[in-house]
Amino acid sequence: MHPQADVGTAPAADAVPADVPADVPADVLARVRSEVDAVFGAYERALAAHDVPAVDALFHDSPATRRFGVADEQQGAAAVRRWRRRSPGVPPDRRLEATQIQVLTPDVAVVTTRFGYGARPATGRQTQVWLRTEAGWRIVSAHVSEPAAPPAG
Question: What's the angle, vertex CA 20, arms to CA 128 and CA 44, rounded to 5?
Fold first, then answer.
């Protein structure tokens, strides 16, 4: 399991979510959830270390790959790589909360999590769609958002 992430809210390994086809055995769901948890953990560790090559390698190398950032967006893995090289990285006190891994098929999973920094509430949101490819699990779609600060007063 990846550090700094609370996956306690994820369904139990033997639970079969309603949106997963009934023909996907529980052991397959558990295996996929474990695999995606491991690769998501690797992604988060690389992100925290600002290990740009490692983060880049976890995005599917395809022109169809898409990333929506807080104030930016990229279409295609090449655009994601260009953006990542210019990005300053995440603050060192980033933390995750309420991480969930939803297995859709044996080859597709969605990871959602909230993130925050320091003692501030974790109001940021992150969603990633992971696809099993010949190269392993890769992100095909990512969305990061932070709600605007509430009005003062």
Answer: 25
